Request: fold
Amino acid sequence: MRCGTDKYRFYPSPGQAEELSRTFGCVRLVYNKALEARTRAYEEGRRVSYGQSSAALTAWKRTAELGFLNEVSCVPLQQALRHLQAAFENFFARRARRPVFKSRKKSRASAEYTRSAFRWREGRLTLAKMDGPLDIVWSRPLPEGAEPSMITVSRDAAGRWYVSIRVEEKIEPLPAIEAMVGVDMGITALVTFSTGEKILNPQYERADRRKLARAQRALARKIKGSGNRAKARSVVARIHARMSDRRRDHLHKITTRLVRENQVIAVEDLTVRHMVKNRNLARAISDASWRELRSMLAYKTTWYGRELLVVDRWFPSSKLCSECGARAASMPLSVREWVCVCGASLDRDVNAAENILAAGLAERRNACGAGVGP
Ligand SMILES: [Zn+2]
Reply:
């Protein structure tokens, strides 16, 4: 079981932005009014309970002057009172200073939603009083089976919107196993494992790429500032989004399988050796895939109690013979198979994957220090 909070950027619709801004304003107002009442009570030698603050909020909502508080979700308002309660408890216990008023300019605008005030369905998050889900940039996906328990929405000084999601994951580390694998990221095959298996780029990617290139050419022909150009741009964006969704899906399947089947996974650090200056679309996509694959492996190995070994990027994984360790003088990309001086006949990518695994294990032994182990 892991408990954590992840923060993501999101882009509200104009309606959502308006609703959230109004909520932020109400949260600040309720906090400040309750603080005022508590401060007065404190100076008169009385203490105010959360229940009393909450009853006061109900009373405010009934007045003509503050009736607008009913228009926003009540949960963030209640949460503001809970925070104030905690702040006073800390103050009374001498752990903190006396709470201060929230200012429109200086305080971070935020609102907190507990479980009853949002809906989480199939990876879509909809807040109370909103008609549609938030458009969240999932820079790092929530793990399978993760259930958000608290949502905090905020807007920073630059007007950027963020959503913090607290999750309680029911992820159990997988039982430890013996298997280890080296992974080579390549161009002809997307990835090659030291076991000899190769996973190619998905079939549809070539077609998608052609479609994207066509849409980009069409966009380039449109007159700047024209309505047609805006339309063409949204076509490009849609194709892009669909491509990355499909690619991510493919990578999730590969990485989940790797993590399930292996205790130790060795990869190269982001492979500069492949990154040439003259980048075409296919190359840009494989670079993006590798980056994503690496980051997926990093967090999935952590979740499931596996180990990720990252080999130095200058390691000549393609040039070394995995049988005898002899180093070939040069290894142009066109060479897919070669025979070493020791007589071993080697598949370029499988050989590289085997070397990556061996180098990862050697680096780990060194890092653990001499004298440890048999
Ligand atoms: Zn050899």
About this structure: The longest strand covers residues 2-10. The mean pLDDT is 86. Helices lie at 14-43, 50-62, 74-92, 204-221, 227-261, 281-304, 348-367. Residues 336 and 348 are 5 Å apart (CA to CA).
